[in-house]
Amino acid sequence: MLQPNPNSYNTSFLSAQELEMRLAPKVDPLSMTRILDAYEMARSVHEFQLRNDGTPYFHHSTRVCKILLDELHIYDADVLVGSLLHDVLEDSDTVTRTVLEYNFGSYVAYLVETLTKDLSKAKSNPDQVDIEHAERLKLASADCMVIKLAARLDNFRCLQFNLKRNPLVYVRNTFERYLPMADASTDVRLHRLSEEIKKEANKFLG
User: Which residues are CB-contacts of 120 (< 8 A; sequence separation ≥ 6)?
Assistant: First the structure.
């Protein structure tokens, strides 16, 4: 595995201190506590995980949150918490929907569960799992799609660092399964994310 360049995008992340500074003028103390608690839970769950590009998985979670904050100006605590925790159900044996609901409320638990894929099934049939996931998102709240596309945008920005084993398939599936939903939506957040994903695809494909 290639060692990541410490100055590359894929090595960047949002620290807890930076997150707190961004949130301080925008959220109340209770929301601040919930978001920082989610940050710590995500860091704990993903502590020993590395992505295919050799970078800590947790960095991805923080960058998804950063995209929502800096590019979409989203300060809703539930959505930010959901962005930080969007992969914890897939990657933890102890964090369950019940745990999420107890700590962060029913809407956050709904967001994270909706964004969770069946990884055991994906080992044998990843394409079918992704199709079913996209279909589920068609019926989900727009916030689910916002988090999903923000995660995809971050991944697109990491494609040049060998993040995906089959990057062209990842790009194709995104354009065929997820972007049409965003483009058909009236949600300006989804339109913005779709535009950015298309720009990153053009950069990668040349």
Answer: none
